[in-house]
Amino acid sequence: xxxxxxxxxxITMDPSNPIAEAVFVENGRIVAAGDKDSIYSAAGEDCDIIxxxxxxxxxxxxxxxxxxxxxSVIHKGHFIGGLKYDSADEVIARxxxxxxxxxxxxxxxCFGLDYxxxxxxxxxxxxxxxxxxxxxxxxxxxxxxxTGFLNSRGLEEAHITRDTPDPRDGHIYKFDDGEPNGVITExxxxxxxxxxxxxxxxxTPADLMRDQFAEYKRQGIxxxxxxxxMAVFPNEPQLMKQLAQDAPVRQDYxxxxxxxxxxxxxxxxxxxxxxxxxxxGIKFWYDGSPYTGNMLMEENYLENDIMQxxxxxxxxxxxxxxxxxxxxxxxxxxxxxxGYQISVHSQGDRSNRExxxxxxxLLTEFPRADHRHRIEHCAFMSPEDVQRCANLGITLSYHIxxxxxxxxxxxxxxxxxxxxxxxxxxxxxxLDAGIRISLHSDDPMYFAGPLLLANTATTRTxxxxxxxxxxxxxxxxxxxxxxxxxxxxxxxxxxxxxxxEPGKLADFTVLSKNPYDVDxxxxxxxxxxxxxxxNTDTMIS
Length: 541
Known about the structure:
22 strands, globular, Diaminopimelate Epimerase, Chain A, domain 1, alpha/beta, TIM Barrel, eight-stranded parallel sheet
């Protein structure tokens, strides 16, 4: 099958041929991109002509860090976050509505609680939530997904008592009398609750993931990377591969290391790769979130009522390691020497410094060319450590929505002005050091949307319109590369995806406006996407 795309600007992301008039595709791959006459001549008469109708086409957008398994579940919950609701009254009313819509005895799952945006929210504990319902187990998850609040029925259903020990990666907070106060943190505690709630949804895992595929397609995404598959669903790798074959997005993924280490998965569970489904490596965590007090910093967080009373972060807190550094090094060494790409969640300046120390030791003892090990999120990193990453060949993926949604809160409540100026989201420094970066949403932490990410990276402007560390702004070209060809490079897919060049897969995103002709990328709508030259509108119901 042969197609010619024409009729609008075509942004190729190929520096040697940045703008094309037409693209020739045969059997799902790009044959040529160039002026219309030469493309028509190359294609011949026996081909389909696809008129862009004045819209702009570019390489398919890539989401290089999301959690499609978690997102497919969590987005079926009741969203109560400050990204949507402006006041505490609206948030509490939405929780009450969610309870009213749920049969007694069933879990009520609310997601997105946000003290940093909805600063008038009351402090929550088990008894405050008991005032809303004692007939349902109720869990309210904060926007960062690292902390949850349970009512008494929820604690009972989760089998959390005064005698339940803290897991290695989380905490059970307690009243002075030793009884759990309803506040719990991190995946070991939250994940079983998620599974319990999932069982009552009445939708199959396949249905849930198909819905999420469709949402990514609507955002112009043609490839996603699941950042640490955690067996939300039974036989999840096999299920995702099966679903990927007819999905409007390609599915690349890493597996969370603890899935291998605790026996939930084995390497035998990793299906054979194909063009729609690729296994990239192993995902680790070193610290947590700036919004739960376990992002590991060199200096303490700010102290104020929001941090200490609402978010339950103790005073004189500088964060914590989720895993012992010696243990993490042994894990890094194990999978590095097996030849895998390693990705590590690390946000704080101290966490990043210590992690880079571990990588430096690893790569000194066990050198490996073109390893493409990644640090995920990179919220706070010193300029010196950015340069160390460049020297070691470590690539960075930035959680730039921290700036868009929480720039003011990080400055005023969490970290403070000086550290924001010196360490926050050093995208400009990274590019100047020669690092190929990407931008990601961490969906469901934030809703997927690559154009918003690119816009934020170029403007360094928050949702409220305030400039945040603008010295680290990057150019539009650089931002578009971060959601196309450079993201593809991080996935080891640069020879297949990320630019419109001969030999590559014909993955395209069609936009209502040319990114180079607008002041705000958020004004652009996604018209459609193509996968291997096929319009993905035919791939969703």
